[in-house]
Amino acid sequence: MFNCTNTGVGVQARSRRTRHFTTAALLGCTLLTAQAASAITLTFNDLAPSGDAPNVTPSYTLSGYTFTAGPSTSIFLLDPLYDTDNVPPDGTDFFTFEGGSPSVEITASAPTFSLQSFSAAAIYGDPAGDLTVTGTLSGGGTLVATFPLAAASPTAVWNTFSLPANWVDLTDVTFAWGDSYVGLDNIVLDEPVAQEVPALPLWALGAMSGLLALFGGRRLGRRRA
Where are the transmembrane segments (predicted)? Predict the structure, then answer.
């Protein structure tokens, strides 16, 4: 298999065939990388001390994603033993943002990311309402989606929501709530990463070499004519 990291730079090709093969191999190497997505689920598990709900305002970073409190907003990590009426179905820690019409913004250490899904609930007796999610696109413009949250009466009603497939290439995402208290959990995001794909087989490189030789020979023939 041709090694793209050792393409013979600085070494003279010994024949036209060798030169064509080397050129084809270099062309093949340009096809060896692609963009893939690396998904991550932010669960907030085991982050809050047992029975506690630490205030992490103004911002909290987890696995390369930063949650920043909006105006008049406080953000917390809640252990399930702190308030059993509002725990997610899996009975684990979760994230909350609270205040007067609170909001929280998510940014990433990578230039762009995607939002796939999340779990959310109104908590602490809040009435039913819409959770508004706004994403800023890297090329300009925004995406907006609203998700209905049931009243937390007497306990929180958690649901999982999925975003449309076009929620990609985002620079930030903001969650906004019209009342006072919201819990978030199991936020699924991903960001593009470089991924190496299998190298081209020798027969493919040979085919490219043959095409290069054919067109090279035609050009040489025209010059002699």
Answer: 200-217
